[in-house]
């Protein structure tokens, strides 16, 4: 296995190369509006660092969000094109799942910046069946987008990964774990699920709401 993982659902443009047992290289850039600028250099960087070529890739995994429309689309389209060009198998994993894995075992909340004073959030149980074994990420409900104050107080009291606690510290009192998605975590999660025979998601993005920009439609005159 030579698996390339990438995610552009959060402020991080993150890419990692994984050989089935270890992360060979990882590139991370924090730029909430620079996904298109930094993703291709990140891919080149991890391949060069590992001495690999695109044609050697066996699998490509992209984060499916939820995330802002433009950034998320950059990663998914890039993954689709690269898979088509190389013949690598293409998979999708929800980005919040990778954040939950990176945060460690236990029940927790993941809350990322959705802008518009909202967060993308989901609740998880992260379990490790045996010491040193792979962690299992179990979603306890579907991802959603909401204003933080509208979340149940008991839910907000859970250990919380993502940028939600840094943006709304008075509402998420127990920050714990990474702020942004790591492609290394995305790769480990995807590889573990593939090894267990669990099907991964397709590559349809999880936007949860309409994009900020929409085409302007001019109505035709009744007279033609």
Structural features, described:
This protein is an alpha/beta fold and about 220 residues long. About 30% of the residues lie in helices and about 25% in strands. The strands form two sheets. The protein has a five-stranded mixed β-sheet with strand order 3-2-1-4-5, with helices on both faces. Strands 6, 7, 8, 9 and 10 form a five-stranded mixed β-sheet that branches. α1 (about 35-50) packs parallel to α2 and α3 crosses α6 (about 185-195). The radius of gyration is 18 Å and the shape is globular.
A few lines on this structure:
The chain has helices spanning 35-50, 69-86, 95-103, 153-156, 164-167, 183-195, and strands spanning 3-7, 12-18, 23-30, 59-63, 89-93, 106-115, 118-128, 135-139, 144-146, 160-161. With 224 residues, it is an alpha/beta fold.
CATH superfamily membership of the largest domain: ATPase, nucleotide binding domain
Shape estimate: globular
Helix content: 25-40%
Q: Give a quick account of the main beta sheet: strands, pairing sense, barrel closure.
A: 5 strands, mixed
Q: Helical segment tally?
A: 6
Uncertain ranges: 213-224
CATH topology of the largest domain: Nucleotidyltransferase, domain 5
How many E strands?
A: 10
Strand order of the largest sheet: 3-2-1-4-5
**Level-1 CATH class name of the largest domain:** Alpha Beta
Q: Into which percentage range does the β-strand content fall?
A: 25-35%
Determine the N-to-C terminus distance. 59 Å
Do you know the CATH architecture of the largest domain?
Answer: 2-Layer Sandwich
Mean residue pLDDT: 92
Number of domains: 2
